[in-house]
Design goal:
The chain is of the alpha/beta class. It has a single domain, classed as Vaccinia Virus protein VP39 (Rossmann fold, 3-Layer(aba) Sandwich). Helix content is 34%, strand content 27%. A seven-stranded mixed β-sheet has the order 3-2-1-4-5-7-6. The radius of gyration is 16 Å and the shape is globular. The termini are far apart.
């Protein structure tokens, strides 16, 4: 399993999270980021080319997987803004309170062991008036799909680096003290329905 997590899983994550359907969702939210940005779960850096360099001053890229951060560093080598990498999980964001303008989280809340604690830390580091920008897969609205999500979770978490299929993303965000300003949902095309229900939008500290 250690060899799988070190050599195979990072490439699988890069491939699946880089699919055309997932990239289309990233493109809807990442360009909204501005100022000093914290990206939680930066992974292999797939979002980095999508930031608007005219709006972004610096990106703090946080991820617990050094193998993925190695891939991200390659993608950031020629960017016109600074990227600083932090090798740790979302529950342990080391930044000071109220120091970033935007927090970006895409296809990450599914795999953070304690998403409630991570979201609380995200709210802590956001400046007053700052925004949380998110695009996440999670709990489907259809009961039949939810049953399959529940059945598949134990296996899916093992092979997917802790990815959980049925987290209620809006409920988690609100419970952490955010006010959701915009929220859209849909099943992603060409994606299994049990893994393809997508939530995206923006929120502010309540």
């Amino acid at each position: 399993m250690n060899l799988y997590r070190r050599y195979i899983l990072p490439r699988c994550i890069d491939w699946t999270c880089g699919s055309a359907e997932v990239e289309a969702q990233r493109r809807k939210v990442v360009p909204l980021a501005s100022g000093r940005v914290l990206e939680v779960g930066i992974g292999s850096g797939l979002n980095l080319p999508l930031y608007d360099p005219a709006k972004v001053e610096r990106v703090y890229g946080l991820d617990p997987a050094p193998e993925l951060l190695t891939m991200a560093r390659r993608r950031s080598s020629s960017l016109p803004f600074a990227v600083e990498y932090l090798t740790m999980g979302g529950e342990d964001i080391p930044l000071e309170g109220e120091c970033v303008d935007t927090v970006v989280v895409t296809f990450t809340l599914c795999s953070i062991p304690n998403p409630a604690a991570a979201l609380e830390r995200m709210r802590h580091v956001l400046k007053p008036g700052g925004r949380l920008i998110f695009s996440e897969h999670g709990r489907a609205p259809d009961e039949a799909v939810r049953r399959w999500q529940h059945r598949l979770n134990p296996l899916w978490r093992r092979i997917g680096g802790g990815c959980t299929l049925d987290r209620d993303i809006p409920a988690l965000i609100r419970a952490a003290g955010f006010r959701i300003d915009a929220l859209e949902t849909k099943y992603l095309p060409n994606t299994p329905r049990f893994a393809g229900f997508n939530y995206w939008g923006t929120a502010r500290p309540g």
